[in-house]
Every structure is written in structure tokens, then in C-alpha cells.
Amino acid sequence: MFQIGEHNMILIYKLTLTKLTEDELKKDFATIPSWATHLDLSNNRLGETSNEELIRVFAKIPGWISHIKLRFNNLGQKNGKDLAKAFAKIPISVTTLDLGSNQLGKKSGEELANAFAGIPTSVTRLILSQNELYKRTGGELATAFAKIPSSVTHLVLVNNGLGEKNGKELATAFANIPSSVTTLDLALNDLSKIKSTELAVIFTKIPTSVTQLDLSHNNLNKKSGKNLAKIFANIPTSVTNLNLSCNELGKKSGKGLAAAFAKIPTSVTDLNIEDNDLDNRTGKELAMAFAHIPAFVNTLRLGDNNLGNKSGEELAEIFAKIPLSVTSLDLRYNELGKRNGKELAIAFAKIPSSVTNLNLKFNHLGKITGEELAMAFANIPTNVDSLVLANNELGAKSGEELAKIFSKIPASITSLNMGNDWFAVIEKLSQQKMVLSTITHVVIDYSSAQEHSAKLKLLATVFPNLNKVTFMDIHGNNALAGQNPIEEAKWLKLCGIKNSVPSLLSQALFFVAKNKEHRSIQDYPSLLPKELTDSISSLLKC
After folding, report:
1. Environment class of 283 (CB within 10 Å of its CB; exposed 0-12, middle 13-18, buried 19+)
2. CB-based contacts of 1: which residues, under 8 Å, 6+ apart?
3. Cα(129)–Cα(126) distance, rounded to whole angstroms?
4. Considering just the CA atoms, what is the radius of gyration of the chain in Å?
5. Could you list the residue range(s) of the whole structural domain that residue 25 is in?
6. Which end of the chain, C or N, has fewer beta carbons within 10 A?
């Protein structure tokens, strides 16, 4: 009946309805535990119910539920006005409404508009994925989008075949996306099917309120570098977070990529070009391309590009051209373990001195000998203060090898993420009487911490100046965020941190978790301290 969600320890309850009479619904909904904030009502054939039954179902949703998933219910069979009446019964505690996979594209624009108008104004995240919206004309989509509540800040239009529309139609539709939307997800729409000149015009119609734009999985590799440049040049300058992952951009030449990257708006500070098969290009070509990444990008995500297939010299050539504006470099899932220690040392030495956060997660570094890894780590730039080594099978190394490896980590590093390798690594380092006094913050996997809680006390022996431990879930988020701060204090005590008290951040996140629906939190993020923005944004998505 339920499934445990790892993200922030939030529990999802899957409810399969039996009969839709008043008495039966009371029984079914009475089974929902008070801890559940996510209610999954997918696959209940709600589109086949009578209007009275559908209203009855939504009216029974408990007032503490924040997320409702209604996928695969064939709601497209219902009349728009009837859907509006039913949606109006959804409790105002709901902030995320998932209407994905409901064949809503079968409804006319007017009917969709009627339905959307009934969505509670408490909803800030609206998911309309996989609804075949391409079946509606641009004018109809415009009519429908115009009725999306102004409370919605996160609009998900994934996998709707929007690439089937012509430029004029889609431009008309996008022009009516509410100006409240700050995150727009257009992944998996095969936008490359649209003529480049038309796609460029379409992008000018994206609301200037949008700061996060997801264009992943759109086969953009089918566009020439010159045409990509025209398209990227028209991305709104309000966009700060641009996701271009999974577009097979590695099929473009270095010159083509350079032309395209050069036209990415200078407003973009977080650029995601993960999973683009960049290893298909030579080191020289990638260096040419990276040299044209705007010098305003702070976070560069290069994960899952098989860069381990490049030689050490090529990697060095590539890294040397990363803009000096980059402070966070993500190299996860790149099979860097294919290179030997000398090659990695050559490559790491060319990482820009501006980088303070280096992510080497899931690179099979454990395949390299301890001596070689020590050689490589010794060349990590001394400006790096946060290093992610999670899930690299380092726990399989001997104590002697681990001592060599960790002795060469730059003294500048104060934060170390070891993921699920932590317990084996720490146990062996403690046996070697290894002391890393510069480390004050460690990040470990929460599930493994639960499994090996008796070994947590060893953290303080290896890291005598440790004052912070973060327990991460499988999504890379703080597993204790939003929980009672006393829970954090309990875990810190197990880690050997003396006089552990709940952090100010955990107390703030706990308050947010308990008050997600409060208007000052949902509508006025500018009132919150800037340093809390990332953690709180992550929590509100849960």
C-alpha cells in the first residue's frame, strides 16, 4: 500500500481505491497514515467515474497532503468543467499536482482552460507530462496555458510531442505561459524537428520570469552549430540555470560546439551538458568548445560524458579551457578510473584554480592503485575546499593504500563526501592511525549510516576537527532536512561530535517543512536568507 521515498525521508502512500461509494471511500482514505505527505492515486481509472464520484474522491483527500499523483487515470475522458469542479475539491495543502499521462491532449483548448481554472491556487508545481498536447493547436494551448493558476512557479511539459507543432503555433502557446513560472521543463519534446529560425522565435516567447530552463532530450544534435547559436541566442536572459543534457552534442564538431556555446546567454550561471557523448570529440575540439562557454558560468556539469576515454594530455587540454568563472566542476560518471595515476595527475593539474568544489563521484577510481591515486590527488588544485569521492569502490583498497591516497589530498579541502564507501574507508584509516585534521565536514550515505551506525564514532578519530556531518539520500539531498532538529543532534552525537546541537539550517528547514503551504514561503522566496535558498528550494520540490 505504500512505498518509502528516500528523498528527505518523505513517505509516499499508494492508494488503490476499491469502490467509490461514500462508505467505501471513507474506509480507503482512512488507511492513509498521518506521516504520508505524498499521495499516489495513479491507475485508479478515475476518468471512467461519474462526476459525483470524482468529486467525492478528491473531497476525501486529507488536508495534510502536499503532493498528489494522478497519473494514468484517463482524465482526458472527463469534460473540462467537470474536471474543474473536481479539482476545486483538492485541499489547499496541495502544492504539487501531477496530471501526467492522462490523455489531456484529447480535450479542446477551451475544455483544458476550464479544467486548469479549477486547480487550487495553493499549487506551485504543475506536472502535465506525456499528455499528447501536440494534438491541440497553438491557439488552443494558449487558451489553456492562460488559465494555469498564477500560483504555479514550476511547469512541467515533458514528453508532449511539442516538436510536432510549427513555430508560429508554439510561439503563440508559450506567450501565454503564466509570468509566475520560474522553472520550465521542456524535456523529451523533440524540439529539433522545428525549423531553427522558428525555434529561435519560440524561445523569445518564453516568459522572462523563467530562471530554470530544461531542454534535455530534445535531439539538439540534429541542428548545425550555426543554427544552435541562433537558437541559444534567443533564450531569455532571465535564465540562470540551463539544462542541455542528453542531446548527443558530441556529434557536433568542436567548431560547431564553440559557435553554439558562445551564444548561451551570459545570465546562465549553471550549465548542464551531461550525457552528451562528448568523448566523440578530440581533446583539441573540446578545448575549443569549452573556451567559448560564457565566462559567467559558476557551475559546470560534465557528468556521464565518458571523458575517461580521453588521454591524460587531452583531459589537461580540455580542463585548461574551462572558464575561470567556474567554481563548481562536476565530473561524475566519466570512467576516469580508466586512466592511470600519471595521466590523472596531468589532467587534475589543469583544473582551473577558480574551482572550489570538485565532484569525482562514480568514476571507478578504486581500479587505480593507491600509489597512482595518491599521485593524482596530489595535483588537485589547492583552491579546492570541497571534494566528492562517493561511490568509487575506495573501501576495497587496503589500509596502507588508503593512507597513501588520503595523505595526498590537499590541505585546502575541508569538506569530504565519501558516499557509501565511508564505513570501510574510515575503519581502515583509523586502523592506520590516520588523522586528517583539516576536514571539518563529511558527507556520507544515510542508508549505510543506518546499517553501520556503530562505526560512526570512528569519524571523529580520523577527523578530529569534525563539526558537521551531512547524511545524503540516494538523490544527493540531505536526508534529515525537514525532520525534527533533535534527530540531527542524535546522529551528530553518534558521530562523536561533542556538544552537538541542531544547526540553524536544520531548524530553518524543519520550519519550512512544517509550513510549506504558508504564502510567505511559497510566494515570497526573496524574503528568505540567500544562503538557505538551495536547500529550501530542494525541500519544497519534495
Report:
1. buried
2. 13, 14, 15, 16, 31
3. 9
4. 25
5. 1-91
6. N
Q: What is the pLDDT of residues 403-425, one digit of tens each?
A: 999 999 999 999 999 999 999 99
Which value, to the nearest 10 degrees, does the dihedral of the CA atoms of residues 429, 430, 431, 435 take?
80
Side-chain-side CA neighbours of 323 within 13 Å: the count stands at 22
C-alpha cell at 522: 511559497
Q: Tell me how far apart the alpha carbons of residues 322 and 160 are, in angstroms, rounded to a whole number.
A: 35
Interatomic CA distance for residues 398 and 366, integer angstroms: 11
pLDDT reading at 306 higher than 90:
yes
- 328-345 burial: b if 16+ Cβ within 10 Å, else e: bbbbbbbbbbbbbbebbb
| Domain tally, the chain | 1
Cβ(294)–Cβ(265) under 8 Å?
yes
Considering all CA atoms of the chain, what is the largest pairwise distance in Å, rounded to the nearest integer? Answer: 71
- As given in the structure block, the three cell numbers for residue 250 are 558530441
Q: Per the domain annotation, does 35 fall within a domain?
A: yes
Angle at 405 between CA 417 and CA 348, to 5 degrees: 75
The helix (run of H) or strand (run of E) holding residue 488 is: helix 485-494
Residue 13 DSSP SS3: strand
DSSP for residue 478: B
Pairwise CA distance, residues 191 & 390, whole Å: 35
Alpha helices in 36-129, H assignment, sequence order: 51-59, 80-87, 109-117
Residue 12 inside a domain? The answer is yes
Tell me how far apart the alpha carbons of residues 460 and 443 are, in angstroms, rounded to a whole number: 13
Neighbours of 41 (CB within 10 A): 21
Phi, psi of 328 (to 5 degrees): -125, 115
Give domain status of residue 3, yes or no: yes
DSSP three-state, residue 3: strand
Q: How far apart are CA 15 and CA 238, in angstroms?
A: 40
**Sign of the Cα pseudo-torsion (486, 488, 492, 494, in order):** positive
| pLDDT tens column, 50-109 | 999 999 999 999 999 999 999 999 999 999 999 999 999 999 999 999 999 999 999 999
Helix 422-431 vs helix 399-407: angle between axes, to the nearest 10 degrees?
90
Q: Is position 505 within any domain?
A: no
